[in-house]
Amino acid sequence: MHILVMHRVPDSFVRYAENIDHDTHQVTYVSTPDRLATLPADVRARRIERPGSGDTAAEVLAAVSGLSRPDLVVALSEYDLLPAAQVREALDVPGPRVADVLPTRDKVVMKAAVAAAGLRTPRYAPLAQALASDVDWSGRSVLKPLAGASSEGITTYPTPQAALAAVREGSVRVDVDDFEIEEFVEGPILHIDGAVAAGRPLAVRASRYIGTCLGYAEGAPLGSVQIDTPPATVDFTLACLRAVGITDGPFHLEAIETPEGPVFLEVGARVGGADVADTFELATGVHLASAQLRLLAGEPVDAPAAPDAGPDERYGWFVVPGHTLGSAYCRIEGEKPFRDDPVVRRWVQRAPHEPVKTAVTYADADIPLAGVVGPAPTAVLERFLTDLFASVTVEPGEDPR
């Protein structure tokens, strides 16, 4: 089988060599220059560079022109799911098409599908429609890109009218056709992660955010800790997945806890970012990216034999951003009392001479401070992250050159 991999996610996260038989299959990796070094080194494969400056699908198609048609197109990054569908359509390769991917990428299509299944979502409208006819809710509201990621481009307002006025008056500049307006539903935010095979759950794990993804985009720390995952949470999750057509592979679902039950926020047909995958594997024994590759290749994937972790064996992760510093270097203070705490399982900290990324990222190696905590009860981990976030400060550093 000829397998085309649209490579973006580092091999240390994916484990290509463990999950694709490179001697049996013909494997072609297409990658941007900055990602070439993160390809698996010791496997038999064709490696093709694409510029990374233009349309992803067009660059991939140009890179593989003249090669035999692939039998499988693999894309693991959320940024590549829609381009991969376009590549499949152009090359007539089996797998999800654009129409299949939209319910997990376009936030209006996504919420419409979930609402049609009888599940609660925030009230919402395409921005162009709202500008023409207003909306039917009041209170805090959000402008969101339809296919955004990492909460980039999101802005909040006290009322929907204030949001629409900001667009009309030009104080916020957005592509009206690529945005939605959404009701802000109050409550703690959960992320529910796992994998399904033929609609059957291989493993499901719920976690509660400490902080928010929007806050992280604006420069605040973010983390999460695992919580109980009762049958009702699993049932809600599977109902959401059925609504958007996720039947095989990993998922990362976000929902808002309210007194009336969970409110769907969004879902992706992908592995969660930051250290979600690591904490999930610690708790369940399932490496989500491996499960995804094996499912794509038609290989069997079994649920772990070990039972889920007990209530005192929860895990969590944290990330402290650097993209709002205005500097490629940072100075960290207030972290020393925490780094040797018994709950710390992994601690990753930038030294003053090590640069951080100036774009939004959750990658441990690109931000000032990150880590994994556990095993411990949820309350212990929540307290640790809350205290850490209240104590640590990150300031712009000096260029060591």
TrEMBL record:
Annotated Gene3D superfamilies: 3.40.50.20, ATP-grasp fold, B domain
Keywords: ATP-binding, Ligase, Nucleotide-binding
ATP-grasp domain residues: 111-297
Transmembrane segments: none
InterPro entries, per database record: ATP-dep_AA_Ligase, ATP-grasp
Coiled coil: none
Recorded GO MF terms: ATP binding; ligase activity; metal ion binding
Name of this protein: Acetyl-CoA carboxylase biotin carboxylase subunit family protein
Organism, scientific name: Streptomyces sp. R28
